[in-house]
Structure formats: C-alpha cells, structure tokens
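User: Hi! I have a protein structure encoded as tokens and I'd like to know what sequence might fold into it. I'm fairly new to this, so please keep things simple.
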C-alpha cells in the first residue's frame, strides 16, 4: 500500500497501474480491515488521477464501509476525510460537506482530535470557494486556539490566505504565508509548496509585481515535477498564465518586444506542462475542464486572439462548478475585451452582473477592478434608484433575487433560476433584508413594494 501511495505522488500512471492491481489482489486474504480500507482509499486516488470519477467514488465508498464495519474508527475518519477531499476536487461541494459532517461526528464521538483541524480547514476552503468568505473566516477563527503543527498549520495558513485574496487584501494574503506567522518552517510537502506558491503569485500579480509573481510560480512549478496531482497543478497553471498575460499586456503598452517574447515562451511552457499532465486522463474532471478553459482565456489575452469567447467559456466553466470568484474574474475579462472592440452595451451589462456578484460575496479586489474599468470607459453601472429613502441601494443581482422573492421563490428555486449556489442565493436574500431593514422575507417584499423597487 505504501509503495502504491508513493508512486501515486511521484510516478506516472504507467508506473503505478500494475502495482495498484497487485495491491488489491494481495489484501484479499488479509483479515485487517484498517489495511484493507487503506488499500481501497489508495485505489480511489488511483482512479481519481485517471479521471475515472465513478470508480474513484466506488472505491472511496468501499474504504468507508470496510473501516466502519470493522469498527476501525481512526481509519473510518481518515477514509471519510479523503472522500471529502475527493469531492472537493471534482468538485461536488455538497457531497464534500456531508462527508465532513460525518468526520465531525466521529471526532466528537470517539475523541479523534487528529481529524478536527483538517476537517475544519477543508470545510472552510469549500466555503470560501463557494463565495462565503466571512463564513470561512469564522470557521477558522472558531479553532484558532487549537495548536496546529506541520501540515495542519500550513493548511490553515493557505486557507486564510485564500480568503484574503478573495477579499482583495493582498498584503495580508502574503503576510499569513510567512513561516514566522505560521509558526512552523516553510513546507516541504509538494501540495503545500504549490498551494503557497500559487497564492503568493496571485497576490503579487494583483499588486502589479510581475517578477515576484514569476519567482513564486517557478517555486510552485518545481514542486509540480514532484507531484502528479492535477488539482494543484491546474490551479498553479491558471495563476501562472494570468501572470504572463498581465506581463504581455504591460510589455505591449511599452512596446517591449523582448518582454512579449519572454511571456510567450513562459506561457508555451505552462501550456505544454499542463497538457502533458492531463494526457493520460480518460476524462477530465469538471474542475480540470475549468482550469483548461482558464488557461485558454489567459493565453488569448496574451496573444490577443479570440479573447471574448475564451473569457466567456472560462466564466461559464466556473459558473457550472459553483466557484463564483473565478467566474466573476473571467466575466470582468470578457467585459474588458468587449470594450476593446467598442461593444459598450454588452460590456455594461456584463459589468453590472459582475459588480453584483463582487459585492454580494465581498470580493473587494475584483470589485475595485470592475469599478475602475467602468470608470475608465465612463460607464454607469447603477441600476437607477433602488430605494426612495436614500438608503443603501440594491445591486443589479440583488434586484434579480428580489423579483424572484416577490414571486414567492425559495432560496433553492432562486439558485436554480439564476444559476448560482444555494449559499449565494441565501447571501443575496440576507443582504436584501438588511438593506431594506426587514427581519423576514415577507417583510422585505412588503417593504420593496412600498419603496417601489419590486
């Protein structure tokens, strides 16, 4: 089992296929439920790396069942946590959270404190990716006093950094990744190295520091060579390509042909490495398809070819997997490209949509970028007066949600109608109620009618 697990991290599918098959054959006659569960858990990861989602899910279920029936409580918690991590990487966030609920139950029932922090941080990561930044921070804060070492300490740091990035707090995102702030040495584990490097690169590129961003990318890419997991590779590649696209745009503005060629060369290497990573996959996971669309969109921005369509496809890909931050980012890029072609009405509508999402989720950095683009082109993103008393106005997205509330739609129905997550729909409803000074949906609808905004 250990050999196969090592090969999964550092070898190609051709190198671990046969050992994995021998592993399953070898455990058939061993009456050890913990070892058997562990083997099926490893096999699940094998199938995940091949893109065989159904088989990966079946093996993960098998691992959980064997550990549960054998009353191997620690292995049961580990199998559930890994199952949750699998669902997070697909992604299937609701299924991930359900498995984490089961982990929390085992932690409470059997005192398995080892799994408290990893489960909490994975839950916070999923919550942040769904766009609920404040909720994610609250989850981390609730266990702030619990000592964390090694993997757990860096897991907490990278999730905190991600929430800072989403909130546009780029200096803070970098600060929490400092080993002195984490309280442990810089990570050696390839996944944590890539995660940290990706977030450092993202923060630096938002701050306009291309060289520091590239340096972080190079550190991450060195770790990619020691890790076969496309989940981390794709995330880093997406950020790395954004760095080169931004660099090329700057170089074009200053007419530095040498710097443009440098960006193109680095971009070609990023694309080639990513294509090699997914070449042996039988099917791509939805998140991997989104990564690929993101690379295409950033490469289009670098070359200036088919920018609008590629950005649109990337935004749709992240919408489909309910990751609103990246969907909004590419919506902003699409609007930027539309304006470059003089398509003002279409760009204005898109920016209104994007700003509604940035404000409902608290994506302050993206909100500033959207607002600056609108100001540069003298666009009005306001939806007209949305109150009659001079109170805080509703965003364009909130107005859409309000109209559905007036129709009597529930939060799940609103989410389905607007192609957003239930959590996002609930956030919009809460924001509307707050702005209208209401304590219930019925009261909010009544107040909206009184103010003439419904």
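Assistant: Happy to help. Inverse folding works backwards from shape to sequence: for each of the 454 positions I chose a residue that suits the local structure. Here it is:
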């Amino acid at each position: 089992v250990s050999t196969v697990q090592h090969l999964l991290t550092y070898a190609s599918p051709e190198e671990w296929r046969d050992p994995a098959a021998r592993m399953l054959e070898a455990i058939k006659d061993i009456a050890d439920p913990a070892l058997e569960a562990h083997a099926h858990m490893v096999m699940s990861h094998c199938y995940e790396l091949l893109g065989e989602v159904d088989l990966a899910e079946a093996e993960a279920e098998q691992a959980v069942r064997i550990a549960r029936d054998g009353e191997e409580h620690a292995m049961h918690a580990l199998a559930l946590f890994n199952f949750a991590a699998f669902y997070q990487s697909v992604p299937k966030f609701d299924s991930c959270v359900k498995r984490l609920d089961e982990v929390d139950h085992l932690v409470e029932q059997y005192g398995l404190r080892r799994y408290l922090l990893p489960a909490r941080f994975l839950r916070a990561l999923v919550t942040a990716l769904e766009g609920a930044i404040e909720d994610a921070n609250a989850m981390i804060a609730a266990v702030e006093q619990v000592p964390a070492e090694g993997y757990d300490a860096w897991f907490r740091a990278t999730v905190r950094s991600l929430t800072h990035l989403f909130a546009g707090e780029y200096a803070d995102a970098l600060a929490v990744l400092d080993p002195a702030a984490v309280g442990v040495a810089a990570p050696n584990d390839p996944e944590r190295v890539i995660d940290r490097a990706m977030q450092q690169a993202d923060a630096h590129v938002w701050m306009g520091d291309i060289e520091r961003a590239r340096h972080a990318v190079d550190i991450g890419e060195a770790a990619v060579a020691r890790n076969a997991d496309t989940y981390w590779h794709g995330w880093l590649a997406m950020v790395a390509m954004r760095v080169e696209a931004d660099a090329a745009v700057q170089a074009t503005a200053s007419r530095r042909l040498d710097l443009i060629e440098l960006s193109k060369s680095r971009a070609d290497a990023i694309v080639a490495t990513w294509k090699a990573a997914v070449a042996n996959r039988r099917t791509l996971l939805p998140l991997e398809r989104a990564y690929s669309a993101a690379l295409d969109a950033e490469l289009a921005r670098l070359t200036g070819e088919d920018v609008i369509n590629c950005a649109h496809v990337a935004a749709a890909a992240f919408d489909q997997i309910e990751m609103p931050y990246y969907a909004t980012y590419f919506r902003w890029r699409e609007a930027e490209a539309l304006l470059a072609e003089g398509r003002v009405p279409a760009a204005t509508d898109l920016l209104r949509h994007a700003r509604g999402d940035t404000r409902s989720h608290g994506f302050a950095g993206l909100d500033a970028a959207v607002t600056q683009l609108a100001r540069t082109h003298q666009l009005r993103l306001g939806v007209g007066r949305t109150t009659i008393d001079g109170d805080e106005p509703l965003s364009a997205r909130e107005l859409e949600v309000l109209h559905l509330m007036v129709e009597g739609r529930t939060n799940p129905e609103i989410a389905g109608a607007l192609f957003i997550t239930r959590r996002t729909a609930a956030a919009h409803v809460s924001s509307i109620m707050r702005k209208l000074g209401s304590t219930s949906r019925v009261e909010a609808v009544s107040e909206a009618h009184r103010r003439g905004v419904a």
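A useful reference point when you look it over: The first helix runs from residue 2 to 10. Feel free to ask if any position seems puzzling.
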